[in-house]
Amino acid sequence: MITVFGSINMDLIATTDRLPKPGETVAGNGFATAAGGKGANQALAARRAGCVVHMVGAVGRDEFAAPALMLLDQAGIRLAGVKHVDGPTGTALILVGGDGENMIAVVPGANGTIAAEDADAAIGAMSKGDTLMLQFEVPAPAVERALAAAKVKGVTTVLNLAPLIADAPRLGRLADIVIANETEFERLAGQDNMNPADRETALRRLHGETGQTLIVTLGADGVIAIRDGVLTRAKGLKIEPVDTVGAGDTFCGYFAASLDEGLDFEASLRRAAVAGSLACLKAGAQPSIPLSADVANKI
Fold it and tell me: Domain Carbohydrate kinase PfkB spans what residues (predicted)?
């Protein structure tokens, strides 16, 4: 079983021919809304991969609450751990350029009300061997409490270091498995502008210090990881991306689900990388998450 302790948002998405430079206004050519939030996205990905998933988070009492939960509910994710609080549901303002790249600003809303007692409640319902997935779109003290409580209970923790926050290097060391993109990993390692050789050296160094499983997603170049002293690489698919906004969360959810289902580490990485590639072929974070059968057909 997987419990996701994280954010639930509505995404407000504008498309443009290209992303604006600082201080520049560009013309948009489309607008849509879609359910999102890194926690909710990863929960849906894990569920579509085939796992039993519990979501722990918060939405507001506003017009965005119901649509933000709709796809999770339809997928059969257990939502008893989602609280409804006064004020707005979290929102993400997303610009997507013609090449599929994006710029995102996140307004926490109800996600900002997640507290230590919510972490205690989430872990209290879990058992040894379960998996807890976390990100940084809810307050860092709550994430820290959840990581600590999970360790005491023997729950495996998978922490995605996104969005990048000041506490990421410290809190990153508390998880069993850490997933980061290239920029996030540089912050974790304390080194900027890494080349591939630098990245491998840093992975070996950090793994030697902490014993953690460390995974770095590399976009079109796939993923590199270290576990039990062994470096492993996996490739996704060669695609022409439409929208990359859901790729990272899809990778995280599919990876955690694959391990939970008993796949070996290398197979889990490959399955997650393929799923992340497929998520780039449609617009929107949650609508783009592929079903398990679609991923299996591409592996």
Answer: 2-290
